[in-house]
Amino acid sequence: MGLRLGFDLDGVLADFQAGLNQACLDPSAEMDGTSSSQDRSTIELKRAWRRIIRSENWWTTLAAYEPDQIARLYALSRRHRWEVFFLTKRPSTAGDTVQVQTQWWIEQYGFYLPSVATVPSSRGEIVRALRLDLVVDDQLIECADCVSASTAKAVLMLRDPADQASRDQALSQGVGVVSTLAESLDVIERLDTMVHSKSGALARLKNWFSLATEERPVLPMNPRDARPLPSLQR
Question: Which domain holds residue 88?
Fold first, then answer.
């Protein structure tokens, strides 16, 4: 059985901050009457969110941090038989549902048939329900929630390598730290190797009594281009 993995979207795969910054650039916004730079920032942020919510399929417009690594994640999941789930708390916008927008966006980068779970409540609850082995998230509070509420391990995506304080805090709580999606996939590959290299009397006994399985047809890398399996062609 392969690893069961959870990946947050914004901050891990998608560059949400760049999209939010762009939404804040509203040339028609009236900023008169603000008393401080903090007031101005708060008003800009609220207006940006209103623009986002009114925009059709806004979540499909975000850029990917590492487009090639999303395709790599898909290839690895197929090779190692990983079960991958994408987790997000994105609010609804005009257009399609958050789930559909997110699925469409992920497929554009080469990860086909993605499983997307919209998680409005505790991240730890869904991680426990899905029985995930490891979660990658860019928020330490979410990582801590996953670790405390489930048996999953957590990895913090800290894209600012200079943020030593956050790194130290995460490590002190037993949360791993990476700075790129590529690095997180390297870590997961090593974990996968460790899991499958475990041996001993119990493992040998399990293998001894396992039923032999016939070679089964494997779907192509892009299942949407698949022809019916031979068993279905009648």
Answer: 4-14+63-205
User: What 8-state DSSP symbol labels residue 34?
Assistant: -
Tell which residue, 141, 138, 103, 136, has the closest CA to residue 122. Answer: 141
Name which of 38-42, 94-98, 130-134, 195-199 the model is least confident about: 38-42
Distance CA 9, CA 116 (A): 10
Q: Please give the Cα distance from 65 to 12 (Å, whole number).
A: 8
Residue 49 has pLDDT above 50, yes or no: yes
Predicted confidence at residue 204, as pLDDT, reads 47
In-domain check, residue 22 = no
Is 134 within the bounds of a domain?
yes
* 3-class DSSP assignment, residue 142: helix
Mind listing the pLDDT tens digit for each residue in 110-123?
A: 999 999 999 887 88
**Is 215 part of a structural domain of the chain?**
no
- Is residue 32 situated within a structural domain? no
Domains in the chain, number? 1
Q: Give the Cβ contact number of residue 111 at 10 Å.
A: 21
Q: What token pair was written down for 87?
A: 């987790």
* Three-state secondary structure call for residue 214: coil
Res. 27: pLDDT tops 80:
no
